[in-house]
Amino acid sequence: MMMNKDALEHAKQDYERIPIPDDFNQMIDDMCRQQRPKKKKGWIALPALAVLFVIGLNTIPVLAESLSGTPVIGPIARALTFTTYTVDEGNCRAEIDIAQITGLSNKELENTINQELRADGEALVHQFEEDVAELRELDGDAHMGFETDFDVMASNENVFSLRVMYHSMSGSSNTWYKFYNVNQKTGELITLDSLFLKGSDYLGTINTYLIGEMKSNTEADGKSIYAVNQEDEAYGWAFTGIESDHNFYINGRGHLVIAFDKYEVAAGYVGTPEFEIPTDIISDLLRPDAPVLK
After folding, report:
1. Largest Cα–Cα distance in the chain?
2. DSSP letter, residue 196
3. Cβ(136)–Cβ(186) below 8 Å
4. Contacts for 127 with CB less than 8 Å, ≥ 6 apart
5. What is the pLDDT of residues 248-257, one digit of tens each?
6. pTM of the prediction?
7. Residue 98 · residue 121 · CB < 8 Å
8. Radius of gyration of the chain from its Cα atoms, rounded to whole angstroms
9. What are the φ/ψ torsions at residue 127 (nearest 5 degrees)?
10. pLDDT of 54 higher than 50
């Protein structure tokens, strides 16, 4: 089984349906104080897998900054590694980093995002265990890997942007992302709609730029690298544009960047393309309080 973005969401929903004991919060605190968690009912136990390293770095912030491997970018907000799960059972291995954000102006939003990051990570470990067991029933010599990572794309007085990466390997590989963008002035989560004036055709402007850039990237035979041509039989479909819920982030220069997952708009060898949108083509469409440099 190859885990992807949809599988992660289903895994998270399944995990959240597991009954939570009354002492769950205390169990988390106990886990974060130990190098190896005890297998307790209600927490994620991995009976079929060898957990090599699990530690809660939020309980020791000085050590967190030195071990997280994530540089602090800017004075306002940062991301540390709350917990790392390293699981190794022969040919099946997972390394799942769970981020924790600190320093947001809106503490309620900060807690909400951190809870979601933790739930996603816990669901991944739970799903990984199930996938390994399923694969080994089919093939005793199964190979499977999964890893996550995160990067702070911007952190300043205007905006905080966090990118979480998910990478799965089982025969082939898949990579996808999740982004959290916060307006530090208003304390609100940023959506594409919230950046632009109501009623503006910002999607049309952005899509025209994206398709133009994709078409300009051609192979030696003159065909586009991306799936943007209706006549391109190699893909069997054509990218026609993004919607308002598409992945994006605001980089350290204050520019809007549209991000794509692997296979989303091109063959796997292209990887995970990103397109920085020139501010001059959207400046007239941006809201006055949008944290994008004009």
Report:
1. 63
2. B
3. no
4. 3, 7, 8, 11, 14, 15
5. 999 999 999 9
6. 0.74
7. yes
8. 21
9. -70, -35
10. no
